[in-house]
Amino acid sequence: MKKKIKIISICLIALFIVSSLNMTADAIDGREVMERVDDRNTGDSRHALMGMDLIDADGDVRPRVLEVWSQKADLEKDIDNTIMVFHEPSSIKNTRFLQKENDGEDDDQWIYLPDLGRVRRISGGQGGDSFMGSDFTYDDMKSREIDDFEYELLEEDVYNNYETYVVKATPKKPEEEQYAKTISWITKEHYIPVKVEMYDKDSGELYKEMKVKSDIKKIDGIWTVFSTVMENLDSGHKTNLYVKKRDNNYLLEYNSDINNRRFTQQFLKTGR
């Protein structure tokens, strides 16, 4: 089984980030840190109601509400299926997005646009496009094979009161990736990425930053992040993604039963 790296996709899709490993005093290198990130247990399924605030450089906010279901399609191969349904605003209501991970191949992605009344497959050439006007791209949401990158442990650092490892990941095939490199701050206690820097492929300069903006709390025995922000440093535009409440309680479920039909083209098109 090939290991997958899902730092950005996990933060975006459900904000469910967990490690089942304890910190040891043994020497550790960059790849081992990322393997421990990958080895965390995220549950067999996840369900959440989420807010997605699009914030421009002047601070104006366009709020959105979406619901996310994610489930293991293959436990042995660590392959997930995920679907998102947008509820608000009315202009994008019932827009639905489906992603299916593949073992050793690029993930499949489709989007249903109600105004067009049809399902559109996201092609490889659209990977760098914005997802629903946010600062996340379609490629940001995909899983990656750990073997596709070289890793370097740059230093140990304290970020937002968390002891972290700082790891640089450089793609072995730069032509197939949208970033020249990423640098991640990974907590020693949880193996959770609390900050990720993404560097532009053309200029090599820092382009985007993703930061966890909430405390890391244990929900049903699982370490959980409730809010993360992605910022485009060129435009000053930000996307705040966070778990929302329904009936005064956070809608956040692990290991609940999800019908497999929810992850089909039929559900994507009809919502049923």
Automatic annotation (TrEMBL):
**Residue span of the signal peptide, if any?**
1-27
Q: Which Pfam families match?
A: LolA_like
Keyword Phosphoprotein, does the record have it?
Answer: no
Residue intervals of the Uncharacterized protein TP-0789 domain: 80-270
The record's section on CDD domains has:
LolA_like
Top-rank taxon, per record: Bacteria
Kindly list the residue ranges recorded as spanning the membrane: none
| The protein's name | Outer membrane lipoprotein-sorting protein
Q: Which InterPro entries match?
A: TP_0789-like
Q: Which UniProt keywords apply?
A: Lipoprotein, Signal
